[in-house]
C-alpha cells in the first residue's frame, strides 16, 4: 500500500526582534577656565643627541665640523704668524707698505756703524784690562751711583722717564756705570794732581758740583774748599779720567789684536778659532 507522503513545508527562520540602540548620554561638566592646566612634555634632548651621536650620519657630520674647525684654526694661526713675522722684520709701515729692519740697519750702519763698533771694541778692552788688573765694580758701587742719579733727577718716576727718553733700560745703564767705574779704577793711578789743581777746579765748578749748598749761601759768600775737598777730589779725578780715556785706550789697542769688520773685510786664518779657544782657556 502506498502511503502518500506529505511534503513537509520548509520552516521559516525565526527572526529576533530588533535591538534598540543604546542611548548614550554625554555629560559636559562646566569648569572654570582659570583652573585648566596645560602640561607640555619637552623632548629628551640628551637622548636625542645620544642617538644622533651613535648614528653614522652624525659621526660624519661631527668629523666634517671638526675638520672645518681645524682648518679655520690653522689658517688663523698662520695668519697671526705672518703678521708677527712681518711686524718683527719691519721697522715701520707706511700706508700698508713695510720698511724692513734690514734697510733700517743698513742706514744705521752707514751713519753710526763705525762709531758703534769702535765703542764696543773699547768696552771690551776695558773689561780685559780690568780682568788683568783684578779690578771689579761691586753691586753696591753701581747701586750707589744709580741712587745718586735718581736723587739728582728728582725721584724714581723722573729716572724712568729719563731712561725712556734716552732709549735705555735700567740694566743697560748699570752696564755703562760698571764700565765707568772700571775705567776710573784703572786710570786713577795714572793721574797726578796738586792741591792747587784741586782749588782751581773747585773755584771754577763749585756751583755745579754743589748746587744746593751754593744756593743756601748768603749773597757774596763762598763755599769752604777744605770742607768739600774730598768730594772735589772725586769730581776732579772723574773729569781727568774722562779727558785721558781716549789717549789711554788708543795706547792699549796696540796690545790687542783687533779685527774691525765694520771698516775692513774679515780675515781668515788656518785654525784661528781653535787657537783663540786655547788662548782663552790658558788665560783663565
Report on this structure.
This protein has 284 residues and is mainly alpha-helical. Among the domains are: 53-101, no CATH class; 112-260, Triger factor/SurA peptide-binding fold (Orthogonal Bundle), CATH 1.10.4030.10. The protein is 62% helix and 3% strand. It contains ten helices and two strands; from the N terminus they run H-H-E-E-H-H-H-H-H-H-H-H. It has a two-stranded antiparallel sheet with strand order 1-2. A hairpin with a 2-residue loop joins strand 1 (90-94) and strand 2. Helix 4 packs across helix 5 (156-165) and helix 7 (195-209) crosses helix 9 (229-253). It is elongated. Residues 1-9 and 24-31 have low confidence and may be disordered.
Give the SSE layout.
Blueprint lengths: L44 H10 L1 H33 L1 E5 L2 E4 H33 L5 H15 L2 H10 L4 H18 L7 H15 L1 H5 L13 H25 L18 H12 L1
Helix pairs in contact: 3-6, 4-5, 4-6, 7-9
Q: What can be said about this structure in brief?
A:
The chain has 284 residues and is mainly alpha-helical.
Q: What descriptive keywords fit this protein?
A:
10 helices, mainly alpha, disordered N terminus, 284 residues
The CATH topology of the domain at 112-260, please?
Triger factor/SurA peptide-binding fold
Estimate the helix proportion, in percent.
55-70%
> Strand pairing plus helix content: what structural class?
mainly alpha
C-alpha end-to-end distance: 167 Å
Give the CATH superfamily of the domain at 112-260: Porin chaperone SurA, peptide-binding domain
Q: Could you state the order of secondary-structure elements as H and E?
A: HHEEHHHHHHHH
Rough outline: elongated
Task: Note the beta-strand portion.
Answer: under 5%
Major β-sheet profile: 2 strands, antiparallel
For the biggest β-sheet, the strand order reads: 1-2
* Tally of helical segments: 10
CATH architecture of the domain at 112-260: Orthogonal Bundle
Nearest-integer average pLDDT: 80
The total beta strand count reads 2
Radius of gyration: 51 Å
CATH class of the domain at 112-260: Mainly Alpha
Unreliable residue runs:
1-9, 24-31
Amino acid at each position: 500500500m502506498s502511503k502518500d507522503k506529505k511534503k513537509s513545508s520548509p520552516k521559516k527562520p525565526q527572526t529576533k526582534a530588533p535591538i534598540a540602540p543604546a542611548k548614550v548620554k554625554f555629560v559636559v561638566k562646566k569648569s572654570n577656565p582659570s583652573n585648566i592646566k596645560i602640561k607640555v612634555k619637552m623632548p629628551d634632548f640628551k637622548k636625542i643627541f645620544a642617538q644622533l651621536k651613535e648614528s653614522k650620519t652624525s659621526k660624519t657630520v661631527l668629523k666634517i665640523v671638526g675638520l672645518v674647525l681645524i682648518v679655520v684654526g690653522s689658517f688663523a694661526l698662520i695668519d697671526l704668524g705672518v703678521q708677527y713675522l712681518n711686524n718683527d722684520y719691519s721697522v715701520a709701515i707706511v700706508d700698508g707698505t713695510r720698511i724692513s729692519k734690514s734697510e733700517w740697519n743698513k742706514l744705521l750702519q752707514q751713519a753710526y756703524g763705525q762709531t758703534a763698533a769702535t765703542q764696543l771694541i773699547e768696552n771690551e778692552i776695558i773689561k780685559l784690562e780690568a780682568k788683568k788688573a783684578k779690578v771689579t765694580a761691586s753691586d753696591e758701587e753701581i747701586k750707589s751711583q744709580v741712587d745718586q742719579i735718581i736723587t739728582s733727577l728728582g725721584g724714581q718716576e723722573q729716572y724712568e722717564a729719563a731712561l725712556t727718553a734716552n732709549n735705555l733700560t735700567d740694566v743697560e745703564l748699570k752696564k755703562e756705570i760698571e764700565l765707568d767705574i772700571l775705567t776710573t779704577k784703572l786710570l786713577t793711578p795714572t793721574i797726578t794732581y796738586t792741591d792747587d789743581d784741586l782749588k782751581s777746579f773747585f773755584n771754577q765748578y763749585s756751583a755745579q758740583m754743589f748746587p744746593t749748598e751754593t744756593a743756601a749761601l748768603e749773597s757774596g759768600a763762598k763755599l769752604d774748599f777744605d770742607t768739600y775737598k774730598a768730594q772735589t777730589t772725586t769730581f776732579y779725578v772723574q773729569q781727568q779720567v774722562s779727558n785721558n780715556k781716549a789717549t789711554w785706550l788708543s795706547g792699549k789697542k796696540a796690545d790687542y789684536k783687533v779685527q774691525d769688520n765694520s771698516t775692513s773685510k774679515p780675515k781668515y786664518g788656518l785654525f784661528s778659532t781653535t787657537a783663540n779657544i786655547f788662548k782663552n782657556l790658558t788665560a783663565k
